[in-house]
Amino acid sequence: xxxxxxxxxxxxxxxxxxxxxxxxxxxxxxxxxxxxxxxxxxxxxxxxxxxxxxxxxxxxxxxxxxxxxxxxxxxxxxxxxxxxxxxxxxxxxxxxxxxxxxxxxxxxxxxxxxxxxxxxxxxxxxxxxxxxxxxxxxxxxxxxxxxxxxxxxxxxxxxxxxxxxxxxxxxxxxxxxxxxxxxxxxxxxxxxxxxxxxxxxxxxxxxxxxxxxxxxxxxxxxxxxxxxxxxxxxxxxxxxxxxxxxxxxxxxxxxxxxxxxxxxxxxxxxxxxxxxxxxxxxxxxxxxxxxxxxxxxxxxxxxxxxxxxxxxxxx
Length: 315
Ligand SMILES: *[C@@H]1O[C@H](CO)[C@@H](O)[C@H](O)[C@H]1NC(C)=O
Ligand SMILES: *[C@@H]1O[C@H](CO)[C@@H](O)[C@H](O)[C@H]1NC(C)=O
Ligand SMILES: *[C@@H]1O[C@H](CO)[C@@H](O)[C@H](O)[C@H]1NC(C)=O
Ligand SMILES: *[C@@H]1O[C@H](CO)[C@@H](O)[C@H](O)[C@H]1NC(C)=O
Prior knowledge:
This protein has two domains: 24-237, Chondroitinase Ac, Chain A, domain 3 (Sandwich); 246-304, no CATH class. Helices cover 41% and strands 22% of the residues.
């Protein structure tokens, strides 16, 4: 029992230390890449403004090392955003009631279509994209030459913002498409697809439609663990972390089991040894005529474990 509890304690410490040691570095690095891209695209999208009129979509040009990404920018008065919304901005429809924080007089919505770069910046292990990742982010419009701005916080109140995906790959047989939202803090939420190609959200961020990929896991897992099936990995690194944790737990279970078996073998061996020694003693005692005395000594000297496990040395 002592060994069993020591092993349980040890495996808990191992798994918790493994997860706490790895999580900060791995999650922040992938989030950082996407945030750096947001900052870069904001600057390039603002370049599309020359003499911008409010409520008009201006398409921007990305640097050549990011060919395949489309960006646009639209400037709005925050009052009109709140009372009227934006009926259509590329795939997005922004209802009335959206407010920004902190308050600014004018703001810019930067639109991103990450195209073939979607998997690079938003890796999602175990899922397949049916549509490019689309982003909608709000920024302060007071300086249209600014670069690397930090986004404003926006929230929809009564009605959600909707995203109607136009280029949707066909859904593989038997799989259910899901909307995925990557918020700007790096967390991921899944929700149901509406009317075949619409996702809704109460906040800004990056959106797409995915299905669980049918490809089998690269490494065989000996036992399907409920914690891995129920939780959604954040990114490639998250999945790796989860996997290594599962391996630690599996290792602990096997190690603990091996220890128990070894302990059992040891006890049996000690029993047999004691029995044999006792026999010798009894034989010798019988010769001298002191059999009764020696048997009592044998049983009182038996170690606790052998008594508990029914190893009766006395007889
Ligand atoms: C692409 O090029 C731009 C400008 O040349 C540079 O600022 C940026 O860091 C590059 N981005 C990537 C992802 O290589
Ligand atoms: C996306 O496609 C463009 C050409 O259309 C190519 O230059 C670029 O390298 C591709 N990006 C990725 C990540 O494959
Ligand atoms: C992100 O985190 C910040 C600070 O922790 C919080 O104020 C903000 O509401 C979060 N945003 C989202 C979209 O969850
Ligand atoms: C994600 O889902 C959880 C629960 O389903 C919800 O509490 C949370 O607000 C959602 N986050 C976002 C960013 O939508």
